[in-house]
Specification:
about 350 residues; D-Amino Acid Oxidase, Chain A, domain 2; binds flavin-adenine dinucleotide
Amino acid sequence: MPQNVDVVIIGGGIIGCSIAYYAAKAGLSVVLVESSQIAQGTTCAAGGMLGAHSEYLNDQFYSFARESQVLYEEFWRESGIDIAYTTGGIVQFAQSNEERKALSRWHDAAYLSPEQIQERMPSVSPPAFGGYLFQEDVHVHPEKTTRAFCQSAEQLGATILRNSQVDEIETIRGGYRVLDWNAKHVVIAGGVTSGMLIPGLQMTAVKGQCMQLDGMGMRLPYTLFHQGCYIVPRTDGTLVVGATMEPGVMDLDTTIAGHFALNDIAERFISGLSGFPVLKRWAGLRPKTVDDLPYIGRVPGKENMYVAAGHFRNGILLAPATACLIRDLMIGIEVDTERLETFDPKRGIFHGTRYRVERQSV
Ligand SMILES: Cc1cc2nc3c(=O)[nH]c(=O)nc-3n(C[C@H](O)[C@H](O)[C@H](O)COP(=O)(O)OP(=O)(O)OC[C@H]3O[C@@H](n4cnc5c(N)ncnc54)[C@H](O)[C@@H]3O)c2cc1C
């Protein structure tokens, strides 16, 4: 006999788990279904930066990202769970006058001259035109954070089903049937494979490779960032160097070309860093939409069915704000119209041959 529940969430990455938490906190009965284990998809490949400034896409993205940063701090303080919430922020490097000018538009950033950077971080090769410190762009540990959302959701009564694949969402009277559950609402948070459950959804993959180095006692007070590449200092003393951008590559192999690219990134920031012991290498698939902004909202033509996927480089950053937006839609809280339009999934759902050439299924 199927059991009734308010919402079934499909996907146990950071997006699905944060939705489970905020929905359960709002009093909804929640079931989350994950085909493997929690946080073992793209989420576990991430650096964990909350880079509202370094990843700026447009003003809507920015205000959403800033709200998410605030929600993270609240969650970290309220839950008391170790998510490796690391303050300090990101120093964005300026290697040319143009880059410096572009960064100077941010009024909430502090300029650091090359000398100041060297003084604060003697091991770092100072960028020719200095850098800007964005203190709010802190970082977290992606896997720990996802498990923390999951654990907190469970404490609020959510049911988490692992090793359970959803192949079909059946429409029934008053809602949907997913496996053995009848739900009023369904949320698809399946990351890069979300298109399997939403016909016509445009989603491609951009592979990213990273490496984790033994920091050998080198303590960086900030994440270092330049043109999409970075070094994230983790709380355990290791350094995460990332990441390659390989559009359309679907495998999770680490490659020789990837090793060279990551060594090059490491050397750009800290001379000699590529010789530090490598503890781990990995790859992940960033879920990319038609315009790099995530799909968050109602699935067109399907009442009470939602998608929250395609967060590309920013799923960790945007997870809590995404969850609150989906929660508000489910419980009927008014959401800003411009925000709804910005993230509306309908901009990425195409049927028929006209768009097939753009489609790259994963
Ligand atoms: C190298 C790299 C570095 C990154 N660094 C950052 C960073 O510093 N900051 C940042 O904000 N973002 C970063 N990202 C992006 C971020 O990792 C992703 O945007 C985010 O993890 C996407 O989360 P998700 O929950 O949507 O997807 P996933 O983590 O992939 O989770 C989706 C889950 O759904 C499950 N699933 C799918 N289909 C089904 C089904 N039919 N039934 C049941 N379960 C299903 C999958 O098994 C999976 O566990 C990075 C990504 C990469 C690759």
